[in-house]
Design a protein that fits this description.
alpha/beta; TIM Barrel; nine-stranded mixed β-sheet; 2 domains; about 20% strand; six-stranded parallel β-sheet
Length: about 525
């Protein structure tokens, strides 16, 4: 009597996600689980997918996402699902969706409500309930943001936590972690993370070690002082015993590109000594963040209103600072991607500011930031291809998008193309340039991230595992997202299943939303 399954995929080139050689065969699925992987054999089933000439791999796991709020606006998750992502780890860079107490709520709720999202929750439990009700199309794993915890106690004010504040900090932290967060995230390049001293950070690392979850970190610096920033995180991880995930590892700026190799060597050396350390990176040479990242972040001591006032008062002083830190050529490589003034979108800074150079130019940049009240994002083209290859090919590198879910219709916005093309782009890069094997490339996007974050029964094509699957054509795989027109689905992603249900067929979404909220238990 032949075995039964709801569906099976036969004649596939199966890349299992564990960095072992691929093989031709089939995978059978019943319910949400894979029940057979191996040679093509007779099965009684409802329907058969003939994958002749196609690769079957686990669904891609995006370990560096920012969809905490946007997943509620766009639960269909088109930008990720169409590139083969079936699971996102969200809440990176120190900012998560919950808890939203005090300053965190006052800062983020109005911003998202302007976009049409009704922010009704405060606690993690309430947020998770809202998320489950939204029925997202992809699996969703939350991280707890340090920003959310610190602002509940000290707002955006600088300074170390006194004994009473530290006790409150620990209480908010521990109350949050029991809800099932998969990690703790730090954003030490942004306020209020920049104000955190080692005593405060040690509390976070120690808590992560107790809960057996990693700490993810956007380090204090990724340019001139990136080595010192990495040393700080390694020291904290070694002292606590917590696992460390360095977010979007980079060494930006011409003078720092050579440091990419040194960073990888440092990380490898500590990994060899037993530290559970990895890093992630997207396959692009531009990063995207708030334009105000060019400013001294201590300006934000006390919050954004005070920062605006300081910025207006100190224009001349700060213009001198910027003129010594950035060249006019650097300014030409900073392209506005989103702004409350939509006429600025897609333009480099000089096209918005004018032809003046030196301190006058940077003073006008400051005036522009003041005029839009910090509501402006940009793509910074400050890395190069050699730095990119050095980092992404390293065995401890996980591929990640550093993006939030977006719809395919985005109006005049120009989000970073990593939003729509990260995973196909990396596959295309690997196949075209033979940087690493296809098996290792898939491992970096599936089995390795699942193991790093301790995600049970995900990340592999294996019997008993959940059927998060991607069928893709390596002859046609290519990203089509450009900086000028990012909202394009990639080529070559033929089908995607999430928890055993087909969410993408022939490169188009089916409308099925079968994602799950996954909590650490």
């Amino acid at each position: 009597m032949p075995a039964y399954s709801r569906f099976l995929i036969k004649n596939a080139n199966i890349i299992t996600g564990d960095n072992t050689p691929c093989f031709k065969g089939m995978a059978a699925v019943e319910g949400s689980r894979i029940i057979y992987v191996g040679a093509d054999i007779p099965f009684e089933c409802e329907y058969v997918v003939d994958a002749e000439g196609l690769n079957l791999s686990p669904g891609f796991i995006d370990v560096h996402g920012h969809s905490d709020f946007s997943i509620l606006l766009y639960p269909e998750a088109s930008s990720k699902l169409l590139q083969g992502v079936t699971t996102e780890i969200s809440g990176n860079c120190g900012l998560s969706s919950s808890p939203l107490y005090e300053t965190a709520y006052n800062r983020w709720a109005p911003r998202w409500e302007r976009n049409g999202l009704n922010v009704t929750w405060r606690t993690p439990k309430d947020y998770f309930s809202v998320l489950e009700h939204a029925e997202p199309a992809i699996n969703f794993l939350p991280l707890l943001g340090h920003t959310n915890v610190r602002t509940a106690i000290k707002g955006y004010h600088s300074g170390t936590l006194d004994a009473n504040e530290l006790a409150q900090f620990k209480e908010v932290l521990n109350e949050a972690l029991i809800n099932g967060f998969y990690g703790i995230s730090l954003g030490l390049a942004y306020p209020p993370g920049i104000f955190a001293h080692e005593t405060e950070l040690s509390v976070l690392f120690d808590a992560a070690a107790r809960h057996v979850i990693p700490v993810t970190v956007h380090m204090r610096d990724e340019g001139p002082e990136v080595e010192e920033a990495l040393d700080e995180m390694i020291r904290l991880a070694e002292k606590s015993g917590a696992a460390l995930q360095v977010s979007h590892l980079k060494a930006y700026g011409t003078k720092n590109w050579h440091k990419a190799k040194l960073l990888c060597e440092t990380i490898q050396a500590h990994h060899d000594k037993g530290l559970n350390i990895h890093f992630d990176r997207y396959p692009y040479t531009a990063f995207n963040t708030d334009l105000d990242i060019i400013l001294p972040q201590a300006l934000f001591d006390g919050g954004h209103e005070k920062a605006l006032s300081r910025l207006q008062e100190r224009k001349d002083e700060l213009a001198i600072y910027l003129s010594t830190r950035f060249s006019y050529a650097d300014a030409e490589k900073i392209i506005i991607s989103d702004c409350v003034d939509e006429d600025c979108i897609g333009k480099p800074l000089p096209a918005i500011i004018g032809a003046e150079r030196g301190e006058i130019f940077w003073k006008q940049v400051i005036e522009f930031i003041c005029a839009v009240k910090f509501d402006v994002f940009a793509n910074f083209f400050l890395m190069n291809d050699e730095e990119l290859v050095t980092i992404t090919r390293h065995p401890l590198c996980i591929i990640a998008s550093d993006s939030s879910v977006r719809p395919m219709n985005i109006g005049r916005e120009r989000p970073h193309p990593r939003t729509y093309g990260t995973f196909p782009r990396f596959l295309c890069m690997v196949l075209a340039d033979n940087i690493i094997s296809a098996e290792e490339a898939v491992y970096k996007m599936t089995g390795l991230p699942a193991r790093k974050f301790g995600i049970p029964l995900r990340g592999l094509i294996k019997e008993g595992y959940y059927a998060d699957l991607v069928l893709w054509d390596q002859r046609k795989i290519a990203d089509r997202a450009a900086y000028s027109q990012p909202a394009h689905a990639p080529d070559g992603i033929r089908a995607v299943w999430v928890n055993g249900r087909q969410a993408v067929s022939d490169g188009k979404q089916t409308g099925i939303r079968a994602g799950k909220l996954l909590l650490k238990r």
